[in-house]
Model the fold of this input.
Amino acid sequence: MIVVGIDPGLANTGWGVVEERGGVCRARAYGCVSTPASDPVNVRLGTIFRELSRVVERYGPDSMAVEEIFFGRNSRSAIWTAHARGAALVAGSEHGLEVGEYTPMQIKQAVCGTGAADKEQVTYMTRRILALDHDPRPDHAADALAVAVCHANRARTLGLAAAARDREAS
Done:
């Protein structure tokens, strides 16, 4: 299974492509779509959509996983992030991808075993899980890889559970 993970942001949208085979995840590619603050919002969102569409076309993922928005104290920032998230979701929809959505806590739990992990722990564990010889950079790409790992783990678990139910039913 090939998953493209997305860490949405208007200034920087991280993306990471992970392939899972036999319970082992490996990074195929990762990067970041950056948009200049001087561009109008519609242009920035168009850039995010087009660049993520190119990633999907190039790597042919089976599904997309997107981080849900955390509404902290800065609601204005959350709104801009929601716009970028929408551009990513449309890119996935336009390419017929199944989309999984995960909270920051779910992603941290999947990668680190605790929802209280900090950014450095997430980056370190993502590097270890994907057997990379370096920390993925920028941080947005590392976060996107973690989102993809979360989705791959969940899909594998659901597949194993379904297989067990099928065995019990027969």
